[in-house]
Amino acid sequence: MEVVTIEKRTFLYICERFTEFAKRMESLCSTHIQKVENGLDSQEVCLLLGFSKRTLAYYRSSGRLAYSQIGSKIYYKSSDIEKIIVDSEIQNQSPKQIKPYEKN
Q1: How many helices (H) and strands (E) in the chain?
Q2: Lowest mean pLDDT: which of 6-15, 21-30, 76-85, 95-104?
Q3: Which of 8, 9, 37, 41 has a CA that sits 20 to 30 A from residue 52's CA?
């Protein structure tokens, strides 16, 4: 076993820096957990939008819906889901152009 000695001042400085680091990590983790808790998981989004899991996956892969993934769990911002709902309402309300039938 190797023993390393350092000055007390250096040891106290290292302890102080480690404590600051631990506080920062705790702050970052709690902020991230709050964001995840405010998010919706895939099942909730499917129920809200009336989507199948496959349609939701298509929205993710095509970039139409932003998401965050932690492990195998996927989360969505409620504001992004609201935007999809509003966009679909606008598309459904826009008047459709009816073109007359032309014989070739």
Answers
A1: 4, 3
A2: 95-104
A3: 37
